[in-house]
Amino acid sequence: MEYWKLVWVFVVAFLLGGYQSEGCWEIEKAALFQLKPFFPRVNGEGISWGKGNCCRWNGVECSTSTGRVTRLFLWNSCDLEKEDIYLGWYLNISLFLPFEELKSLDLSGNYIAGFIDNQDLNVLSNLKILNISYEGKNNSAPSQGWQNLKELTLMGLFGTSNIIRDIGTLTSLEDLVIYGCDVNDNLNLHGFCELRKLQTLTISNTNWNASLPECFSELTSLKYLDISSNNFSGNISVFKNLTLLEYLDISSNSFFGDISMLKNLKSLEYLDLSSNKFFGDISYFTSLTSLRELRLSNNNIEIPSSLAPLFNLSKLQILYASNNTIYNAETEMHSVDTPTFQLRSISLSCCGDGGSFPQSLNHQHDLRDVYLSNINFKGDQFPNWLLENNKKLETLYLANSSLSGHFQLPSTSRRGLSRLDVSSNFLDGNIPNEIGAKLPSLSVLNMSNNFFGGGIPISIGDMISLQTLDFSNNKLSGGIPRHLPMEFSDLVTLDLSNNHLTGNIPNWIGSLSNLSYLLLNNNYFEGGIPVQLCDLHLLRLIDVSNNNLSGTIPPCLMNTISNDSSRAKYYDSGYDGSTTYIFVDVLIKLTYFSVDVPIKFTMKNISYFYKAKVLTYLSGIDLSCNNLTGEIPHQFQHSRDIIVLNFSHNSLIGPIPPALADLSQIESLDLSHNHLSGNIPSQLLGLHFLSFFSVAYNNLSGTTPQMTGQFGTFKESSYVGNPFLCGEPLPKNCSIDGSSSSMPKNATDKGFIDMEFFYGSFVGSYIVMPLCIAIVLYINPYWRQAWFYHVEAATMSCYYFVLDHILPKHFR
Ligand SMILES: *[C@@H]1O[C@H](CO)[C@@H](O)[C@H](O)[C@H]1NC(C)=O
Ligand SMILES: *[C@@H]1O[C@H](CO)[C@@H](O)[C@H](O)[C@H]1NC(C)=O
Ligand SMILES: *[C@@H]1O[C@H](CO)[C@@H](O)[C@H](O)[C@H]1NC(C)=O
Ligand SMILES: *[C@@H]1O[C@H](CO)[C@@H](O)[C@H](O)[C@H]1NC(C)=O
Ligand SMILES: *[C@@H]1O[C@H](CO)[C@@H](O)[C@H](O)[C@H]1NC(C)=O
Ligand SMILES: *[C@@H]1O[C@H](CO)[C@@H](O)[C@H](O)[C@H]1NC(C)=O
Ligand SMILES: *[C@@H]1O[C@H](CO)[C@@H](O)[C@H](O)[C@H]1NC(C)=O
Ligand SMILES: *[C@@H]1O[C@H](CO)[C@@H](O)[C@H](O)[C@H]1NC(C)=O
Ligand SMILES: *[C@@H]1O[C@H](CO)[C@@H](O)[C@H](O)[C@H]1NC(C)=O
Ligand SMILES: *[C@@H]1O[C@H](CO)[C@@H](O)[C@H](O)[C@H]1NC(C)=O
Ligand SMILES: *[C@@H]1O[C@H](CO)[C@@H](O)[C@H](O)[C@H]1NC(C)=O
Ligand SMILES: *[C@@H]1O[C@H](CO)[C@@H](O)[C@H](O)[C@H]1NC(C)=O
User: Fold this and answer.
1) Which of 177, 202, 233, 644 could form a disulfide with 153 if both were Cys (CB 3.0 to 4.6 A apart)?
2) Any domain includes 285
């Protein structure tokens, strides 16, 4: 036993480096003590600076052979107590003189504005790796003595950066990273051309709006070049001679030109040209046979839907080419007729005529993600083989692609598939009964805007991860299936609108505890509104309009609508700095219609401190066009966030409750076409955001309040069809005894009813548009489409309902 212990001790001692067990060099220990006052927070974790072997101190690394300090990690360690430290301070470079073998130094996040230079030019002469990131405003380098640097990282610098201005003097550099630097002047891109030894160059997320100089073509050692997100412009022929490049990312700039310039870069494994202004034909990439990943999205490049020019790229795994021009190249002849690649991800969404669905994909068996939405495949059959052939498929988006036929399930289950969107096609037949059993892991299932008939499959209940279920705008009939399991309460969005569904709204919907959006409008549902809906505490939107619902409005319903805008979360970059300038990575978890969309903002402009501007979320209740009776509930304590409330076209009686004024955020309030009586409460004048207000066609009396919407938002009100109501915009002098009831509005009414609904829909869209635009910016197009469809459909059907049912009665 003793023997093994001894061996163990030796092994450990050897691993830690024999020298170090005896302690580090005294001269270096003393030097570290001198540094300590400037970097007090380096003690934060690990072994604090003070006792024992300094090679084991936090942030210190020594050579195993000589025992001398080789690396110092002093990031985020400066003395925050020091007055005005945020304005920048100067570090005495002589303090590093004793560290003769220092190779790597990380000074990031310390507000260092520059260095006090020493006469001894040999300080830092051995330094190979330096990190100067997130420092103070106006950064300057040591004037001399660091010309041997091989790796330099400059992140988050701003103001005037002399380091960047003088970059051309660091001619030994092999690896340079400049990221997120917002420096304002002295920008000299020619300096970079001096760095002939560069193998890796990153200049990304800067605010440099400049033209890339031609001399970049001389950086022929480059293997890795990332100049994404800078708004660089210029002639891409500068890349023509960089034949060693394996990685080229020039995405999100303003480069313009013909992609043929890149055809000689035969070593390329990764090429990202996304979000520029390139044009040309992908046949130029035929020779880039090392490519694994090709990203071309958001350009004007012409891409044949067959992908034939890429067939020889046997290593290609990822092809992202959305938002270009897809064309039909069926007639093109190629020497190879099957692709040699096995793709994992393909994204070709939008735009153009694809001809028939690309059969080249029939040879793919390893696909994970497929995005082929918004291409016109001219009524071709739905490619059920995609799901059959690719057992690892996770995402299948084939929305708005003019596909027809039936949707079939694969022969065995696909447990990996989590998102399936086949909306807005011409699919018909039934939704397969086994869909839940075969695709149990779906979190998003969108089959809306097709011609699916039959019933809703019971097996939907097997999809325990389901968050969004959208079957709207089909021809589904029957009821909502009775037994769905409790696990289903993951569900966030349930959209069954615009079908032929019948029966009651089931009580168990109340157990879908995460439900935020419930859209059952435009069906034939009957019976009452289940009081269980009140248990849904996250509900944002209930739309059950245009059904045959009867009974009263459960008073508690008004209190279910929540608008939890506290979901905005803010992260800084992990850098504990002053709030006055740092890069703020804002992650807003925007829960709109189901999907959590994380949005990352990088605030480049340091002069603005990001103010949390919380987006307005759409929330509301639409019960219109039913046969609801009873009074409007009188209690609204918790429902302050309702933005749209529509109870029109029912048989509601009683007064308009003054408590409606508690809905302080409301923008649209429609109580028209009911049997409401009494006065219009003057409290409603306090609704600041109101834009549309209608109480037309009721039995209201008294005078009309002059709605203004105090923020200038008010657009339209309608009071017509109330025989005992007076005041603007109705005739002011109407008598209160009711004799005028048949008199005043014979002509105006008829004209107005059309106008009213015109305005209604106009104002409806007016309200919805700004909300949506803000949100749509961040949401995938499918939700935008879903929402607009919904709004349009609801408005139109309401309109036609009125045209068909109400108008003839009144004016026959
Ligand atoms: C910088 O440090 C060196 C060595 O500790 C010291 O001799 C010199 O005076 C310092 N210079 C300044 C300006 O503090
Ligand atoms: C440089 O420092 C920044 C900030 O501490 C850090 O995020 C980055 O990873 C560092 N880079 C290198 C190459 O060490
Ligand atoms: C930074 O540099 C600019 C321009 O050179 C100068 O106007 C400004 O005063 C400097 N700020 C600090 C804090 O040194
Ligand atoms: C960027 O540069 C172009 C010309 O190269 C100029 O037209 C444009 O205004 C500049 N944009 C900014 C924000 O400086
Ligand atoms: C980006 O550069 C282009 C071309 O130089 C210019 O037209 C555009 O205004 C620039 N955009 C910004 C935001 O600077
Ligand atoms: C780009 O540069 C090449 C040669 O350097 C030249 O032939 C070509 O005309 C230039 N293109 C544009 C659009 O300036
Ligand atoms: C590319 O290299 C060729 C031959 O080495 C040279 O003639 C040509 O000028 C170079 N082109 C550019 C844009 O540097
Ligand atoms: C693909 O490679 C084959 C054999 O190497 C060659 O004959 C053919 O021309 C190539 N096709 C294309 C489109 O480059
Ligand atoms: C394609 O363009 C649309 C609309 O501009 C945009 O929302 C979408 O994000 C783009 N797709 C990609 C992959 O960039
Ligand atoms: C549907 O796809 C076509 C192209 O086929 C496109 O023009 C249209 O904008 C798409 N519609 C939607 C709502 O995205
Ligand atoms: C509305 O309900 C009443 C009784 O509650 C009934 O008499 C009437 O027929 C219903 N109207 C419609 C259109 O269903
Ligand atoms: C109602 O119609 C009659 C005949 O069309 C017309 O004389 C009368 O002025 C109208 N009344 C109002 C208030 O417009």
Assistant:
1) 177
2) no
8-state DSSP, 453: B
Query: Rg of the chain over CA atoms, in angstroms?
Result: 34
Q: Give the pairing type, strands 426-428 and 318-320.
A: unpaired
CA distance linking residue 256 with residue 275, whole number of Å: 10
* Residue 132 belongs to some domain of the structure: yes
Q: What is the pTM of this model?
A: 0.77
In a domain, 149, yes or no: yes
Of 741, 689, 738, 740, which Cα lies nearest the Cα of 714? 689
Q: Ligand 6, residues 211, 237, 239, 264: which to mutate, most atoms within 8 A of Cβ?
A: 237
Residue whose CA lies nearest to ligand 9 atom number 1: 323
CA dist 280 and 260 (Å) reads 7
pLDDT tens readout for residues 304-326: 988 989 999 999 999 999 999 98
C-alpha dihedral (504, 506, 507, 513), degrees to nearest 10: -140
Which residues face 376 on adjacent strands?
353
In sequence order, what E strands does 255-337 have? 256-258, 270-272, 277-281, 293-295, 300-304, 318-320, 325-327
- Give the DSSP letter of residue 207: -
Is it the case that residue 254 has pLDDT exceeding 50? yes
Please report, for the chain, how many H helices and E strands are present, in that order: 8, 48
User: Can you tell me whether residue 504 is helix, strand or coil?
Assistant: strand
Most confident of 204-213, 361-370, 678-687, 706-715: 361-370
Residue 639: its pLDDT value, please? 65
Q: Residue 620 belongs to what domain range? A: 479-651
Query: Is position 63 within any domain?
Result: yes
pLDDT (tens digit per residue) in 52-98: 888 988 899 999 999 999 999 999 999 888 888 888 888 988 899 89
- 30 shares a domain with 178: yes
> What confidence tens digit (pLDDT) does each residue in 35-51 have?
999 998 886 666 788 87
What per-residue confidence (pLDDT) applies to 612? 24
Boundary residue ending a domain (625, 651, 677): 651
Which residue of 209, 211, 254, 605 sits with most ligand 4 atoms within 8 Å of its CB, as the best mutation to test the pocket? 209
Q: Which atom of ligand 10 has the smallest separation from the CA of 374? A: 2
Predicted pLDDT at 70: 95
Mean pLDDT computed over every residue of the chain:
79
Distance CA 371, CA 363 (A): 17
